[in-house]
Specification:
Blueprint: H1 10-18, H2 26-36, E1 41-44, H3 51-66, E2 75-78, H4 82-95, E3 103-106, H5 113-121, E4 125-128, H6 130-138, E5 149-152, H7 155-160, H8 164-171, E6 179-184, H9 189-198, E7 203-206, E8 217-223, H10 229-239, E9 245-248, H11 252-264, E10 269-272, H12 278-289, E11 295-298, H13 300-303, E12 313-316, H14 323-330, E13 340-346, H15 351-361, E14 366-367
Parallel strand pairs: 1-6, 1-7, 2-4, 2-5, 3-4, 5-6, 8-13, 8-14, 9-11, 9-12, 10-11, 12-13
């Protein structure tokens, strides 16, 4: 299948081609025609599957087909984080560059004046985080009464971050008659409840098993003492000659500390988390994408929505407390058909967390032991797997040259 078969306008096809895409991903192939028909959608899609284009392209077409209708926003996309909001809005700019459609992004952590200027000038598409959007609504600097299409992007994360009340406040500002699109990487009782109250006879799309990780990601666990995690990580990066790696820590303090340690090891690193200013976060991400910094160290919330093309490695320096966050973390690699490797440095006290992740995935993760990092944990059981390895003979000690 090609994009030509999905009923998209010539201007959009030109933009897609110039962006380097030739064939739609499964979620794009299923969602684009349904959005064009005006249907509500509940889509379960893992990160890295081309989700943004699946709603941006048909929304741009519907807006263009209806022509200009004043200066009020006609499409609203809600996202959980600033980074995701910025990247979604950038996608609207890229795909809509041959159409007379204006978009802007609204989030906190930056001044309001540029956002006010864009809103006064008139926009068709607003991509926003809930808090700052409600700030504008309270100041009456935005009017959402003409919104025709609402998108809840990464709805599961918005609920996890406690945005449910903000979402309900936003919904109260929108017209009753509108198209609703809801995207979630994982499903829960809360997600189903929200969908039931929001969507009208939705088309349900699921392109990967719930809570599954994409097949292009190779996963591995390295048992290691907590005190030697940084040493092992530094060794893997340097001896494996990794050019780009995203590392997850549980806390902001941990991210800052690991950044200092890796830089002292000669591994260029920068941290990105909620205590950083938006300017600092944007600069850190730009330097990482440009290859000026080798290692980006992030907390879960800050990394949500990061779209880094062809990211080869993701490392869980510490396992997440919530198993679903493991899926979101490693979904930063293996995107859009590219291969990727997700490694987890697991200490003795993280055994239960690993078991929870494996129960969620319904699969065991390969364990690789590196002898020089086993001495401190020789008297401790290695992280337990749910069942015996499916093919023990395939384990190899390749830690020194992990790609």
């Amino acid at each position: 299948m090609s994009f030509d078969t999905l009923g998209l306008r010539t201007e959009l096809l030109r933009a897609v081609t110039s962006a380097g895409y030739t064939r739609p991903t499964p979620i794009q192939a299923q969602a684009i025609p349904m959005v064009l028909e005006g249907r509500d959608i509940l889509a379960g899609s893992q990160t890295g599957t081309g989700k943004t284009a699946s709603f941006a392209l048909p929304m741009l077409q519907r807006l263009a087909d209806r022509g200009k209708r004043g200066h009020l926003p006609r499409a609203l996309i809600l996202t959980p984080t600033r980074e995701l909001a910025a990247q979604v809005e950038e996608s609207f700019r890229v795909y809509g560059k041959h159409l007379p459609i204006r978009s802007t992004v609204i989030f906190g952590g930056v001044g309001m004046n540029p956002q006010l200027t864009a809103l006064r000038r008139g926009v068709d598409v607003v991509v926003a985080t809930p808090g700052r959007l409600l700030d504008h609504a309270g100041r009456k600097t935005i009017d959402l009464s003409r919104v025709e299409t609402l998108v809840l992007d990464e709805a599961d994360r918005m609920l996890d971050m406690g945005f449910i009340h903000d979402i309900k406040r936003v919904l109260a500002l929108l017209p009753k008659q509108r198209q609703n699109l809801m995207f979630s990487a994982t499903y829960s009782r809360e997600i189903r409840k929200l969908a039931d109250g929001l969507l009208q006879n939705p088309a349900q799309i699921e392109v990967a098993r719930r809570n599954a990780t994409v097949k292009t990601i190779s996963q591995k666990v390295y048992p290691v003492a907590k005190t030697r995690k940084r040493e092992l990580l530094s060794s893997l990066i340097q001896e494996g000659q990794w050019r780009q790696v995203l590392v997850f820590t549980r806390t902001k303090h941990g991210a800052n500390k690991l950044t200092r340690q890796l830089n002292s090891d000669g591994v260029s690193a920068v941290a990105i988390h909620g205590n950083k200013s938006q300017t600092a976060r944007t600069r850190a991400l730009a330097d990482f994408k440009a290859g000026q910094v080798r290692t980006l160290i992030a907390t879960d919330i800050a990394a949500r929505g990061l779209d880094i093309e062809r990211l080869p490695h993701v490392v869980n320096f510490e396992l997440p407390s919530v198993p679903e966050d493991y899926v979101h973390r490693i979904g930063r690699t293996g995107r859009a058909g590219e291969s990727g490797m997700a490694l987890s440095l697991v200490s003795r006290d993280e055994g239960k967390l690993l078991n929870g992740i494996q129960r969620l995935l319904k699969k065991e993760i390969e364990v690789e032991e590196i002898p020089e990092y086993q001495r401190e944990i020789a008297q401790s059981p290695r992280p337990r797997q749910r069942s015996a390895p499916s093919n023990p003979g395939r384990r190899r000690n390749v830690g020194r040259r992990a790609r």
